[in-house]
Amino acid sequence: MPLQEVYRRLFEAFGPQHWWPGESPIEVVVGAILVQNTSWTNVEKAILKLREAELLDPRALVDIPLEELEEYVRSAGYFRIKARRLRNLMQFIVDRFDGSLDAMFRTPLAELRPALLSVSGVGPETADSILLYAGQLPTFVVDAYTYRIFTRHGWIEPETDYHRLQEYSQSQLPDEVQLYNEFHALLVRLGKEFCRKTNPRCAQCPLRELLPPGGPIGSDE
DNA sequence: TGCCAGGCCGGGT
DNA sequence: ACCCGGCATGGC
Questions:
Q1: A49 CA from C12 C1′ (Å)
Q2: Which of A36, A143, A156, A183 has its CA 20 to 30 A from that of A130?
Q3: Where does residue A94 fall: left (phi above 0), alpha (psi -120 to 50 degrees), or beta otherwise?
């Protein structure tokens, strides 16, 4: 299935999504950690608390005690783990880039991506979200919705891993930040409304004409 | 009420 | 190289 066509249909159905939801680069970076396997509504509350406490800064986040950071991010779930992951990433930014996100994002993508992945708590989706939505660097973000939508339509094999899926997508799309930004946001929008894990609503999905003859494939991970 | 949400790590085979 | 349990809050 040509993904350009998929993109065109999604954009026509939903319009621009304005991702990442109206936030500064540091908030995107923090949000990328906090949203791991968690709904965004839970993350918003945590970011709000950090903002009120003026903690949305790499050095500030490195300086406060871990137990205190845990309380700020509690609403995002997995709060002990996420406090540590957040700390790890902020420490990385302070150590390697003197706490400057601008400096970090001046690093070439091919060099920065592996560096981010070396931080404990930063996996491929988190790294790509940071690179694309905070750094405006061209990388296609894969997530659970991307995987579910692509497999249910039969566009990829169920055993396709993150990087294969990313390569598959990038190989048939122009290498543009704006496109990758909008496409991922649209896939999440589609996923939330029509392609939930349980209770999918394929009959009303804007991509229903693209489903294989027998209906969606697999229906589970 | 139980199940799910924009993953990732570490330990066990 | 896989496979799997653990991690936790808030919403429907």
A1: 25
A2: A156
A3: alpha
